[in-house]
Amino acid sequence: MSTTEQSLTDLKILYKNQLFDNVLPFWLEHSIDRAHGGYFTCLDTDGEVFDTDKFIWLQCRQVWTFAKLYNDYEAREEWLSTALHGAQFLIQNGRDPKGNWYFSLNRQGQPLTQPYNIFSDCFAAMAFSQLYSATGDQEYSDIAQQTFNNILIRQNNPKGIYSKIYPNTRNLKSFALPMILSNLVLEMESVLDPDLVEKTLDHAVHEVMEVFYKPKFQTIIENVTDTGDFSDSFEGRLFNPGHVLEAMWFMMDIGQRRKNSNLIQQTVSISLKTLELGWDNKYGGLYYFLDILGRPPQQLEWDQKLWWVHLEAMVASLKGYQLSGHPEMRNHFLKLHNYSQNHFPDPQHGEWFGYLNRRGEVLLPLKGGKWKGCFHVPRGLYQIFTLLEKIENE
Asked: pTM here?
């Protein structure tokens, strides 16, 4: 076996062990609220709960994580019971009378924030479709389908009455929703009509690869006008390397599903350019936000190094290498692996730190909060070790 093959085999074992021996045990031990249901996500370095508010999208993501592993890796009863524990809390408390999912609840399940954020709905649909696959319970399928239909109804005006935008001045649309839909619809195949799946995929690929992709920059920007044009504004110039790379591995999955080699090659090209533009040549790691024209970004946290950005970049680069054989994709994966493993995992208490400053020092020692939960780390680790397994077998 060559040195490269041996090293990839070693990495497969590393990521597999990190997932099953380090990350999942952290959440199973510290996050389950056995008194009121659902999960705690605001966990300090050692897993101590520092806030008891419950954020719907993180609740849903944790349900999805354990249901997905139960479905795709091993039917462990502990994983299914953990997913069901969160699902029951969500069914009882998570929606308004119209079926829209709130953004946050207090510990007991009373709503704190109105259902302004459509991504609560997106991750609810993901979670309940996976639970349906795990259990065959029709209630979960019905919830997933109803939620997905609501998403489609709201997609052109996601925030509805909760939008702060003044109408008909600078009408922008966001990359985030078509990006999420490109993955969500594949997660939901067991509960959706096949024609709707393909129609949604067609729309998502068009939006991601033609509307938000700008040949001038050779990458994707976060916001465009409602006619798909570039907006020379803070929002219009926003470049988020992590979002682009996450979207590229979603597109790779679609390209593989449809045996579309051209789409896969496009995703590899965009990934390579994004990794080049997003890399911090002084301190290493990927920036959180940049201005695509090199102007000062609006976000004060622009130069932070975030856990999810690096995980999504590793998945995109490794998947791109597995599908295309492009050596630069492998090189980027190894560079990202070295940076990430040297900075994010906490060998003492488990899980990954989420927020580093530009120099790579831990900025916030928490393991979970309002935006970080049981999702990107386990999903990324699972994707990485299974991709390494495929490469090893091929």
From this structure: 0.97
